[in-house]
Amino acid sequence: MRNAILFFILVFSAASGFAQKKWTLQECIQRALDENIQVRQAQLDVAAAALDKSDAEGNFLPTLNANASISENTGLNFDPTSNLATTTQFLSASGGINTSYNLFDGLRNFKQLQRAKLTALSAQYGYEKLEDDIALNVANGYLQVILNKENLNVLRSQNEVTQQQLQQTKDLVEGGVSPRGDLLEVQAQNANEVQNIVAAENAVQISLISLAQTLLIRDYKNFDIADGDYQIYGEEVLLKSPAEITDAAKEERYEVKIAENNLALAEKDVQIAKGASWPTLSAFFGYSTRYSEQDITNTFQEQLYLNDGISYGLRLNVPILNGFQTKNNIRRSKIAADRAAINLEQAQLDLESNVYQAYLDAQGALKAYEAAQTAVESQELAFSYSQDRYEVGLINAFNFSQAKQRYDNAQIDLNRAKYDYIFKLKVLELYFGVPVEELKF
């Protein structure tokens, strides 16, 4: 019983520790990379490509095979040692070893090895691109949670002001200084703010659930992220011209690398297809021996020595006619190569367009952020001024609530502009070649 209680305490402590855990952005990204199904599939693609490369390397090695057989012969059979027909029941055995080596195959083995290396590189590029995409997606989801929490904090903070205003208005109405309509206005404003707080709380929970699903975490109730004041880093990338960022992106981004690698693969396939029209030359060597119970004059070892044989030589195969298959395969490979070249051109154009769009988006986000900062400063002054005037009865509750609502909205707009600017800066930094693990938030 005592052990059971201790076990329960340990399990409960461990569960409580997990419930209290708050995930950092780096931990979320690492969790996504470790658990994401697409990442695990991409890892298998990399492993499979490595095996294909090993197969291609193995084609340069000679083949070596051994064989052995033993049989009991009844009725009319040929004696393997004398090659004479006999009807006597007898035991016979044979064995051998054969090896061959490809001397020339139109350089197809060499080209296949080059192709396997390109395939392995393509799988690696795809894996690393997927990691970047997932990391950026997680960062976006994480920032969305932060934004929703910031908005919730703004609404709660401003509602505290409304609560104070509500009590103050009650006192003024009861003292006969303000009309009852002012109290009704403030009560309506408070009800509206409470409703907005509930909606903001739901938005936080929904964004947390969405992020947890991305991380394949099913304990939605206890999942939360670490609180922090996320600052703006990486603004120096905006000092670069779009052309500079585009040039860096062409060198660093996997979209273009994958398209370039696909073109190299297609060109290699053309070379392999052409190799099929060349003659092939291989060398072979074989050794065999046999034993028969019919031979009663020689022992087992003597028979193996007397009945052995060696064969060796060269084998030449010249393709002459195969129903146009070789020519058509070459043509298909050339078409595929032309298509890959077009895809590379399209990938470069798409990348250039995406970089310019990301650059303009980041610049626009910066302007929106600066405008939102100015708006908050102005609305804060206007709200403070309205609050002073309301307290001395120069404006009614409706006008004051309007000023407060504009200030609340300005703060929410500032939060949205800030995190939108942060995210778009990160996108631009990725295009410029900053690794995901080096992005600062």
Explain what you see.
- By secondary structure, this protein is an alpha+beta fold.
- It folds into 2 domains: 21-62 and 101-276 and 319-438, Outer membrane efflux proteins (OEP); 64-100 and 287-318.
- It contains 10 helices and 6 strands, in the order αααββββααααβαβαα.
- Strand 2 (77-78) and strand 3 (85-86) form a beta hairpin.
- The protein starts with a helix and ends in a 9-residue tail after the last helix.
Distance between the termini: 50 Å
Strand content: 5-15%
Task: Please provide the count of β strands.
Answer: 6
What is the radius of gyration computed over CA atoms, rounded to a whole number of angstroms? Answer: 39 Å
| Biggest sheet, spatial arrangement of strands | 1-4-5-6
Low-confidence stretches: 1-19
CATH C-level name of the largest domain? Mainly Alpha
Pfam family, one: OEP
Subcellular location: Cell outer membrane
Coiled coil: 249-276
Protein name: Putative outer membrane transport/efflux protein
Secondary structure: elements and pairs:
Elements: H1 2-19, H2 25-35, H3 37-58, E1 63-73, E2 77-78, E3 85-86, E4 90-104, H4 108-174, H5 180-214, H6 242-252, H7 254-275, E5 280-292, H8 300-306, E6 309-317, H9 325-391, H10 397-432
Antiparallel strand pairs: 1-4, 2-3, 4-5, 5-6
Helix pairs in contact: 2-4, 3-4, 4-5, 4-7, 4-10, 6-7, 6-9, 6-10, 7-9, 9-10
